[in-house]
Specification:
By secondary structure, the protein is of the alpha/beta class. It has nine helices and 14 strands.
Length: 334
């Protein structure tokens, strides 16, 4: 891999694409040339990278000649169509969609957990689901110490996880309600302002949603833990940015709050924010735009043997997407 790679960002104008560009700059990633790619309607739009304005080019099958790394965040359809072409052109793809996550030939990576899997790539590396990534930042260190068997979890997912239009919808609905106007909706099947929707993604035959099953399926692959089980309810909440997850985890080893806190306080990319007396706990308002996830409300689970409850919050556009992708790119350079 070129020490000063030429990098392409596919889906550069989307919420995650914009964060990818910002993160490359913020982390001083040694980009020698940055190419921004998007659909025809975004061509010519200029985006800022390190004090320069870069115009967006149209994504075509020839876009990847001479590129070293391509960060994809333009949806599964685009990834399926263009990622293999990019890999064929000799470019390593880091894909943020769900297109390749469960493909046996594609590593699924959270660098704090399974960085070594990066070296197994055959041209494509997958970025995990955002809710899964944020949960595993707290769960994996505990798993290493106490061996997790299963979790029960409920997510509290921000609207920006559904893209820029969802942010606009929440803003618009709040304004409509405050001014006594009828509420209009386009992105979500129900009003999201002052409401919570117990549906993220589409339903499967067994009554779970696709998003809910990602926690178990992707968790098994990332943690190299084929018997891991996760029963999850994913909920969209009227928060702009940063997802939170309430987790009850059952371990094979006995676990105490003090032992768990000691493990979590040493975990990379994670801050323990847990002082109930001072009313300190992780909240999306304070994890938004932060690289690290936060964990708190750590307590013994009173309904499980060897059980622990915790609450984790993290920016799904960063650790759940853009930051994780750039960290994978950093692993490629090592």
């Amino acid at each position: 891999m070129n020490r000063n790679p030429r990098v392409a960002v596919v889906g550069a104008t989307g919420a995650v694409g914009v964060e990818m560009i910002k993160t490359l700059g913020k982390r001083n990633f040694p980009v020698s040339k940055l190419t921004l790619l998007a659909s025809a309607r975004s061509v010519g739009r200029k985006l800022k990278f390190r004090n320069q304005e870069i115009a967006v080019d149209e994504l075509t099958k020839d876009s990847f000649k001479g590129m070293d790394i391509a960060l994809f965040s333009a949806g599964g359809g685009i990834s399926k169509a263009f990622a293999p072409l990019a890999a064929k052109a000799g470019c390593v793809v880091i894909d943020n969609s769900s297109a390749f996550r469960m493909d046996d030939s594609v590593p699924l990576v959270i660098p704090e957990i399974n960085a070594a899997d990066v070296s197994l790539h055959q041209g494509i590396i997958a970025n995990p689901n955002c809710t899964t990534a944020i949960t595993l930042m707290a769960l994996f260190p505990l798993h290493k110490a106490f061996d997790v068997k299963r979790i029960f979890a409920a997510s509290y997912q921000a609207v920006s996880g559904a893209g820029a239009k969802a942010i606009e919808e929440l803003e618009r609905q709040v304004a409509q309600i405050v001014s006594g106007k009828p509420v209009t909706k386009e992105v979500y099947p129900h009003q999201i302002a002052f409401n919570v929707l117990p549906q993220v993604d589409s339903f499967l035959a067994d009554g779970y949603t696709k998003e809910e099953m990602k926690m178990q399926n992707e968790g098994r692959k990332i943690m190299h833990h084929p018997t891991f089980r996760a029963s999850v309810t994913c909920v969209r909440v009227p928060v702009y940015r940063a997802h939170s997850v309430a987790v009850s985890a059952e371990f094979t080893q006995p676990v105490s709050v003090d032992a768990a806190r000691a493990v979590l306080s040493r975990a990379p990319g994670l801050d323990v924010v847990d002082d109930p007396e001072k009313k300190e706990y992780p909240m999306p308002l304070y994890t938004a735009e932060k690289d690290n996830c936060q964990v708190g409300r750590i307590r013994t689970d009173c309904a499980l043997d060897n059980g622990l409850c915790f609450w984790v919050s993290g920016d799904q556009l960063l650790k759940g997407a853009a930051l994780n992708a750039v960290q994978i790119a950093e692993e490629l350079l090592k």
